[in-house]
Amino acid sequence: VTRFNPLSFFRVAGPWGPDLLAVIRGDLQEKFSFLPEPEVITDYIYHINAAEPTGEDAFYELSIFYGWAKKPLIDRINKIKCPMTFIYGADTWVNPNAGKLLVDRIGPQAAYYLIPNAGHHVYLDEPEAFMDALLSDLSVIKPSEVENSSIISS
């Protein structure tokens, strides 16, 4: 028995996939209307999802039901010994408190950003705020902190 992948519908739609996606998710072209050719968004989303479902398969293997981790990161986050940045959109379907909880547990080597007016794909919804958060954290990392150090402790 094979499991169902949510994007299988688009794979079997073949050449009609981009048009079906444009109808089902008409909001995408509106959201990206600032682009010279907003229809490229639905073409892009279709084509990255029409391929073999390796990402979906990996997500399935790592999850219990839909989105609940089999082996939660919070149980082993303290073994990771490198700076970490957690960036959430304020309007994401993912619980942003999970990132805050991780940062509280990790301590000063971790940063947490909650970006207003952004959903799950912060980098698309608020690209400038996303880059500001990311670059802010990258600018404080010293090469000597990363060089010749083990990222994961045993």
- From the alpha-carbon coordinates, what is the Rg to the nearest angstrom? 19 Å
Q: For the report, how would you describe the main beta sheet?
A: 2 strands, antiparallel
Low-pLDDT stretches are none
Helical content class: 40-55%
Q: Could you state the order of secondary-structure elements as H and E?
A: HHHHHEEEHEHHH
- Rough shape? globular
Span between termini: 38 Å
Tally of strands: 4
**Average pLDDT value?**
80
Query: Numbering strands along the chain, what is their spatial order in the largest sheet?
Result: 1-2
What structural class do helix, strand and pairing data support? Answer: mainly alpha
Strand content: 5-15%
Query: Count of helical segments?
Result: 9
What are the salient characteristics of this protein?
154 residues, mainly alpha, 4 strands, two-stranded antiparallel ribbon
Architecture overview:
The chain is mainly alpha-helical and 154 residues long. It has 9 helices and 4 strands, in the order αααααβββαβααα. α2 crosses α4 (39-50). The longest helix is centred in the first third of the chain and has 12 residues, at 39-50. The mean pLDDT is 80.
How is this structure best summarized?
The protein is mostly helical.
List the helices and strands and how they pair.
Blueprint: H1 8-12, H2 17-24, H3 26-31, H4 39-50, H5 54-62, E1 63-64, E2 68-69, E3 84-89, H6 96-106, E4 110-115, H7 122-125, H8 127-138, H9 143-146
Parallel strand pairs: 3-4
Antiparallel strand pairs: 1-2
Helix pairs in contact: 2-4
